[in-house]
């Protein structure tokens, strides 16, 4: 709605990124004291990529450029090679104008953060809807010493299937030990599947699973210990940890299975007995 127009002739040309309008322009005559309604047919021709940039503790990073670069752009066809946006006060971004049936690479454009953002980029294929829930994490530079950033993946195995479970990340607690196997720090993993251990001296460390809140009656949990060395100018090292959780057959399930086997065996005995009696009766015994 356009308000406070003086009487006279106007040329209207609507514009909204990702949409085309028909007609593309319209000439109108505004009379004093009257309201004029003009209708346009709208067609959506492009879509958006939406997500956020936060620190490990969930604080949004504002004012940071995020770009979407067209993969395999054919400039001769007039396709825009990239679109860009800037994160708001909560770290959220929306990149508009992405073309359908095209592939894009999304990444944070900030030279000061280039080595402190994970993932480095996110590849998407645009269809006929917006791409959502992209999450970039910034690792803040430590005041002194070194840091080890932990990226955790929890995979469950049950009924012959392996499933990645993001909702299980918060069940994991990891420990960092020095050369003498003495535990120096422990850290819990949040829902974002990342954690960080800071203020380390140069040296070699071992990271291992120390605890999980998954019920041991139902799950058998394991994870290989990972060694990492921090030194030199690499103040932040990213380490990936994979936690395997295999479903156990619970006591109640075992009891149920045993009971079913017992019932099946009892029924089989009854059937055999009845058939034997019929057989003997037929022979005149």
UniProtKB/TrEMBL annotation:
It comes from the Eukaryota. InterPro entries: SDr/BOS_complex (IPR051417). The keyword Signal applies. Keywords: Signal. One of its GO terms (cellular component) is endoplasmic reticulum membrane. This is Carboxypeptidase regulatory-like domain-containing protein. The lineage of its organism: Eukaryota, Sar, Stramenopiles, Ochrophyta, Dictyochophyceae.
């Amino acid at each position: 709605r356009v308000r406070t127009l003086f009487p006279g002739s106007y040329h209207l040309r609507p514009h909204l990124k990702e949409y085309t309008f028909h007609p593309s322009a319209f000439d109108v005559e505004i009379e004093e004291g009257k309201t004029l309604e003009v209708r346009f047919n709208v067609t959506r021709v492009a879509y958006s990529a939406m997500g956020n940039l936060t620190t490990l503790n969930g604080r949004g990073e504002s004012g940071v450029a995020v770009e979407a670069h067209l993969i395999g752009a054919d400039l001769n066809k007039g396709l825009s090679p990239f679109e860009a946006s800037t994160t708001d006060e909560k770290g959220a971004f929306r990149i508009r104008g992405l073309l359908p049936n095209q592939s894009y690479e999304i990444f944070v454009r900030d030279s000061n953060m280039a080595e402190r953002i994970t993932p480095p980029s996110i590849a998407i294929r645009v269809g006929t809807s917006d791409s959502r829930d992209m999450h970039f994490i910034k690792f803040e530079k430590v005041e002194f010493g070194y840091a080890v950033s932990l990226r955790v993946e929890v995979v469950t195995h049950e009924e012959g299937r392996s499933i990645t479970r993001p909702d299980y990340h918060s069940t994991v607690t990891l420990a960092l030990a020095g050369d003498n196997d003495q535990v120096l720090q422990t850290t819990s993993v949040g829902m974002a599947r990342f954690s960080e251990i800071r203020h380390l001296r140069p040296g070699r460390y071992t990271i291992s699973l120390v605890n999980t809140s998954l019920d041991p009656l139902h799950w058998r949990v394991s994870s290989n210990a990972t060694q990492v060395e921090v030194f030199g100018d690499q103040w932040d090292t990213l380490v990936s940890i994979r936690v395997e959780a295999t479903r156990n057959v619970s006591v109640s399930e075992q009891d149920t299975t045993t009971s079913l086997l017992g019932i099946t065996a009892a029924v089989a005995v009854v059937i055999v007995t009845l058939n034997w009696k019929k057989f003997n009766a037929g022979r005149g015994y």
